[in-house]
Write a structure and sequence with these properties.
Helix content: 40-55%
Shape: globular
Bound molecules: 4-O-methyl-alpha-D-glucopyranuronic acid
Distance between the termini: 55 Å
Strand order of the largest sheet: 7-8-9-10-11-12-13-14
Number of strands: 16
Length: 702
């Protein structure tokens, strides 16, 4: 009896100790099992020396100390002074030219000297990044001690939170907001520190803490106190805080009669407000603005331009180091227009008119974070405006938190595409990192996927998208495979065979998702409002460009949006080389076909299949691929923590069910136009279109 009781207690204890709720993200620091490997690291764990009066170096030292304690089981001392001993880690902010000439401000070098490992940088935060690099190498069982030099390519590497004051998160799929506004500034949730560490570990150095559909409330003294408390926590980790602002604040908050950016009183209001913010947050990062977009107020309400609005805020920011980030996500509700062209056309006349403190933040594609979009034409068409990249990490259109979708290949596809803006090799990455136009400011933002869920991101694999975003903002040349392997090693397992298999699953996951949702370059056919699941038949919405038919243009002849010279001519916004790449329907990459061409159902494609057949094969194949993901995951059971394994397995079941839902919905709906049987090698859906349409109501109780 006693024995049985003890064994229950022991099992419970084992579960408590070993079950992994994912909360530690990529900083788990579990004990390394490989003794030989561990000893090779222990050699350098006697001490950590550095000027710990500097709060950032102190954080670097503490991180290494707790990392070593967990990974190596050592009690490493922190020494505030340099030492002549060997066998430790030296943290140094250095102005030694020969050491630092290859480094930019945030860059770091790691090398061996006198039996120690030295982490050196021009700045304390560079040393912190180096400390995390060293820990990453240990966590992923790499050799340490050889020379490493690493510099971020993008200067501002930023998360954009779409978090609201009431605790909800717009397009958040991992619980409620992680910012506890009701508790701040008095209670500092320990997660703020965990958040800062996780971000610093991947080089993120900026965060905008509230939704771009912004409430003026964030500019009140009450909220500035709260934001200050968050900024104080993030500062030692090198993270600067930005605020999304509501353009109408001078009226709603300041009681002015107008928010016209050319009105002197309005300008004065912003000048004073900006000064006030700096009293709370001296290193305030700046403003992020969504203006005249989806009902948000902006300068056009007063007959002014985006440049007028942005430059007014830039003027207020002049005495300070912060910047103004002005979003280019704008489009008017024109049933006869083409949303693809709107931002380009509104901003093109303003190219060269923005203040040097302004950077225009552009979504990766011209519509809205669709699973696959051609790169935004603004990236190849603006040589006198600083442009920033906005990716969406939260998976609004990519399966939210139930479908396994690793986004690094999507980020890479966009960054690696050549705009030809200044001849061959003018990739989107080079526009963004400032190297193409020799710009001193560069910015890459990712819409965050964090929330109050224990594992921060909902689906355990969604963490990898946050991780990948940060790593690519640091170095856009990293491959999506390398990033995945790092993340797997730190978050899931270091077993080599398992790592290879999981990496393969991750690399296949995006093409799989696209196959059963938006094959051949289809887009924007999701459930209305919540944006989950299929609704290709959506004909009426509050705006014509919120329907599905606006995008897929299915008719009795064929499918796809003709953006050639015959119709919208959006292709003309790109350089000649890009037009040639996508403009000819016979040569256009099939993955982008429907973005640019209306193709007849019976036209033979390069695969030898007609459009209709190809469409069906892709939808069906997407489901088969999800089933393969399920099988692969099942085989990985011995290598994965029980809780994580169960969570992913369950989500893969949902994914399979919903892949079939997408497939049936789209194939049956498009068949109404194609009027052709489903290829005989495929089993037709076991329900009809009306039945599938009803699922939308069942799923979402609309
Ligand atoms: C914050 C899409 C989303 C909106 C989001 C908007 C934007 O339309 O559905 O929720 O609003 O993009 O990026 O501003």
């Amino acid at each position: 009896m006693k024995k049985a009781f003890l064994s229950i207690i022991f099992s419970l204890f084992a579960i408590m100790v070993f079950a992994d709720d994912g909360s530690r993200l990529w900083l788990k620091y579990d004990l390394i099992k490989d003794q030989k490997q561990k000893l090779s690291y222990i050699k350098f764990s006697k001490f950590i020396a550095g000027n710990t009066e500097n709060p950032t170096l102190q954080k670097a030292a503490e991180e290494l100390q707790s990392g070593f304690a967990g990974l190596l089981g050592t009690k490493t001392i922190i020494s505030p002074k340099s030492t002549s001993l060997s066998g430790g880690i030296i943290l140094e902010v250095s102005n030694n030219q020969s050491l630092t000439q290859s480094l930019n401000e945030d860059g770091f070098a790691i090398f061996a000297r006198n039996g120690n490992i030295v982490i050196s940088s021009k700045s304390a935060v560079g040393v912190l990044y180096g400390a995390f690099e060293l820990l990453r190498n240990i966590q992923t069982l790499q050799a340490i001690g050889q020379n490493i030099v690493s510099n971020p390519r993008v200067k501002i590497r930023m998360l954009n939170h779409w978090d609201n004051a009431n605790g909800t998160v717009e397009r958040g799929y991992a619980g409620s907001s992680m910012w506890k506004w009701n508790e701040l500034p008095f209670r500092i949730d320990p997660r703020y520190v965990a958040y800062a560490r996780a971000n610093a570990a991947i080089g993120i150095n900026a965060t905008s803490i509230n939704n771009v559909n912004a409430s003026s409330r964030f500019l009140t003294a009450e909220y500035l106190e709260k934001i200050k408390a968050v900024a104080d926590v993030l500062r030692p980790y090198g993270i600067r805080v930005f605020i999304s602002v509501n353009f109408r604040s001078p009226r709603t908050l300041g009681g002015l009669k107008t928010s016209d950016p050319l009105d002197p009183e309005v300008r004065k209001w912003w000048n004073e407000k900006t000064k006030e913010i700096h009293q709370y947050i001296p290193d305030f990062g700046g403003y992020l603005v969504k203006a005249n977009s989806e009902g948000e107020p902006g300068p056009q309400d007063y007959g002014r331009t985006h440049a007028d609005g942005a430059n007014m805020l830039a003027e207020a920011m002049k005495p300070f180091s912060g910047i103004v980030i002005w979003r280019a996500f704008v489009y008017n509700a024109d049933p006869n227009g083409d949303r693809f062209k709107e931002a380009f056309e509104q901003f093109k006349p303003l190219d060269g008119k923005f203040d040097e403190k302004v950077i225009v933040q552009v979504k990766n594609g011209p519509i809205d974070f669709m699973p696959r979009e051609p790169f935004h034409p603004m990236f190849g068409g603006f040589s006198n405006t600083k442009l920033a990249m906005e990716f969406q990490i939260t998976q609004e259109y990519l399966g939210q938190s139930t479908h396994l979708t690793y986004l690094a290949p999507m980020f890479k596809e966009c960054l690696d595409t050549d705009t030809y803006a200044k001849g061959k090799g003018s990739t989107v990455a080079k526009v963004i990192d400032g190297s193409l136009y020799n710009s001193q400011v560069s910015l890459m933002a990712g819409v965050a996927n964090t929330g109050s869920d224990a594992n921060w991101c909902g689906h355990p694999f969604n963490q990898a998208n946050w991780y990948a975003f940060g790593r690519l903002a640091w170095d856009n040349t990293l491959s999506s495979e390398k990033i995945a392997k790092e993340w797997i090693g730190m978050a899931l397992t270091n077993d080599e065979k398992a790592k290879v298999q999981i990496n393969e699953m991750m690399q296949k996951s995006l093409p799989t998702y696209i196959s059963y949702t938006y094959p051949l370059g289809l887009s924007h056919m999701m459930g209305e409002g919540h944006h989950y699941g299929p609704e290709p038949w959506l004909t009426k919405a509050a705006r014509p460009d919120w329907t599905s038919i606006y995008y897929h243009r299915a008719d009795s002849i064929g499918l796809g949006f003709d953006r050639t010279g015959k119709m919208s001519n959006a292709l003309n916004l790109y350089t000649k080389e890009v037009r040639e790449m996508w403009g000819n329907p016979d040569k256009c990459d099939l993955n982008y076909l429907m973005w640019f061409h209306h193709i007849a159902w019976n036209k033979k494609l390069s695969t030898g299949n007609t459009l209709w057949e190809e469409l069906c094969y892709r939808y069906y194949n997407g489901v088969v691929e999800v089933q393969k993901l399920q099988k692969d995951w099942t085989n990985l059971k011995p290598y994965i923590d029980t809780e994580t394994f169960g969570s992913v397995s369950a989500r893969l079941k949902i994914q399979e069910k919903e892949a079939i839902w997408w497939r049936d919905a789209c194939v049956l709906y498009f068949q109404e136009f194609a009027k052709t049987p489903i290829p005989s090698s495929l089993t037709p859906p076991n329900r009809n279109l009306e039945e599938v349409k009803k699922l939308v109501e069942i799923y979402h109780l609309r």
